[in-house]
Design brief:
The protein is mostly beta strands. The protein has strands spanning 3-4, 9-10, 14-15, 20-21, 26-27, 32-33, 38-39, 44-45, 50-51, 56-57, 62-63, 67-69, 74-75, 80-81, 101-103, 108-109, 114-115, 120-121, 126-127, 132-133, 141-144, 149-153, 174-177, 180-183. β21 and β22 (149-153) form a beta hairpin.
Length: 184
């Protein structure tokens, strides 16, 4: 069963079991929302958005058309996605003219992150608070700053990896792969 707070608005009929939409959140008709998601106060999810299972959308997050978040993604408070590289009020672009963005499984975007459209954020990547993502982010990369730059690697458990790509907290070993890091 899904839960919609009495002051929340969920117009989509494609919402998975166990998902919660909280006060002042707005999910437009056509959005595809997976199971066990948590869409917090003041979040906005546009009509051509896809959220996988167990996605957390914290307060005041703006998710616009063309954004896909795979399973187990965390979007911190005030994360903002864009979908038009050159917006102008007098130009009304159709959805086929907008640039899509993908946030891959297990990725975390910290508070206040801005994601410029046309990018992919890799599996288990961690984008630190306030960063501006302007290009693709490799799997397991740790990104900070404006524009976002890589400062290291992170494990699935979110701990920074040491120089030999081993997690100091859970002991998981990683290796270089074509899309960033993978498990050794």
């Amino acid at each position: 069963m899904t839960f919609v707070h009495p002051r929340g608005l969920c117009e989509s009929s494609d919402v998975g079991e166990g998902t919660r939409v909280w006060a002042f959140a707005h999910v437009l008709e056509g959005a595809k929302i997976g199971r066990d998601c948590n869409i917090c106060d003041g979040a906005f999810v546009e009509s051509q958005v896809v959220l996988g299972d167990n996605v957390t959308v914290k307060n005041n997050v703006l998710v616009f058309n063309g954004v896909t978040c795979e399973d187990n993604v965390f979007l911190g408070p005030n994360v903002v996605f864009t979908n038009d590289m050159r917006p102008r009020a007098h130009r009304k672009l159709g959805s086929d003219q907008l640039l899509s963005t993908r946030v891959c499984e297990g990725a975390t975007l910290g508070a206040g992150v801005v994601v410029v459209c046309g990018t992919t954020i890799g599996r288990n990547a961690f984008v630190g608070a306030g960063a501006v993502v302007t290009r693709d982010v490799p799997a397991h990369a740790f990104i900070v700053g404006n524009p976002g730059v890589q400062k290291g690697w992170v494990c699935r458990c979110a701990a920074r990896l040491d120089d030999d790509l081993t997690c100091p907290e859970c002991g998981t070993k990683h290796r270089q792969s074509s899309d960033g890091l993978d498990y050794a």
